[in-house]
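Collaborator request, handled under Task 6.
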Amino acid sequence: MTSSPAQQTETQDQSAATIERLKVLISSDQPMKKLETKLANLEVDLSWQKIPQTLGGLEDTFTFLQLKPVFEEAEQSGADLVIALDTEYNRFTLGVRKFVDGKFILLNIHHISLLLARLLLENQGALNAKRSIFVTDLLDKLFAAGQGQIEMLANLPSPLEEQEAFQQAGNGDTLFVSENQEIILKGQKDSLGYLLSQLVLAAKKAKSENRSLFETLLGIYHDYGFQREKNLSVSTEDATQKAFFKKIFNRLKKKPPLLIGMTEIISIEDLGSGTLKNMLSGRTVASQSPGAEALLVQLANNTRFLMFPTEQKVNFFFTSQGKLIRRDDFTTLNQQFDQRVVKLLSEINRLALEK
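Structure tokens returned to the collaborator:
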């Protein structure tokens, strides 16, 4: 039996509508029916897969290797977006396709916070935010452009709901971003569902325009400049290690060299004393950063690092800046910056050996 032209057109329209629906794969240790119901109302296709490995603690974060089986399943099933959830600590991350039909890449806390900040500022207008010092400062530029208020805090770990800054926040919506891959929009009764809904809607819009959510992120970098952030920590529970890094810290604080390796030091900001010294002019001004026993060192190659000792470890937070021209530059620049960080950390360590 031959279909009529009208029936054929209707079938084609239905097929196109099916293809256009966003496919989302959720991965967690157990199904999250409430969240799935909320996202299903956005007219997307959902599937669930048990997460291969849960996070071991508050300081653990999602890794590509950990989620690789989930991404492989997502690619085989034709999913557009992966949402990985840590139900114990209420944290999440995203896997997005680099191209509409390309391989999946894992977004980190900096990527996700940038995407959410842009979406919330566009959709809500007035918005406050508080971010950890270990979270990208590109957020500050987004909030300045969107006329929102953002504050950087020297200590904003997880769980956020136990932090004084969170408890004392006002009644309006405030976006909190911790260094432990936790994001909460205080003021929303169901923060997780609301934030993920915003990201799913953005991914749905991007797909309707034959783009991926990754390309939305690239748009932010084109507007505000590209940065690569990397957080490394070294245990100092051993007395020898503690003394080693204390020597480096004191050297940078009291008698800093002109160079680290072959790179000139532009400035050193002492968060403990609240001062910033320009190494080129010798001028010292007041620091704008929150108080902490930490140092922020700016180098001449568009790289800076925060050295933040604690009782049991030393945190190094590296930020490298560059120019993102093409989509493929993202991976290349990340690799180049990561190599720069490895070399820089080696050169920082040499400061403890110099007399």
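The cover message to the collaborator said: "The radius of gyration is 23 Å. Confidence is low (pLDDT under 50) at residues 11-18. Please let us know whether this matches your experimental observations."
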